[in-house]
Amino acid sequence: MHDASVSVEVQPMRMPPTRILIVDDERPIRRGLTLRLRAEPDLAVVGEAPDGLSAVDSARRLKPDLVLMDVRMPGLDGLSAAALILASDPGTQVIFLTMHDDARVRAEAARLGAAGVVGKQMIDEELMATIRAVAANIRSAQE
Question: Structure pTM?
């Protein structure tokens, strides 16, 4: 008889990165966020959109897990665009970005079921913490 022992190394299953769509009418903000988030191995920027209408179209095509959405944009604003995106795909998470911490915006975001509202002045520290919390929730829902 021949005794062949085989050693198999079990690799932990890696979750796919959280897919993010960035929506802001200011190109430098979109680019800065994209560069910042691409440095994170567990996050993947799948697209950018300059306005609410483009955001709705991009969300339907790209199926992001998370949308970072500016509140105030020309044409279709972020709150209205998010309402359309969430009506089409309720599993999508939305974090709103705003220049002004406004009670009306926070109330509307809560009504829509947004994952958070982050001031643009806190974009690095608070936004990354909020994204990490939302991504963890997305991953636990996928397990």
Answer: 0.85
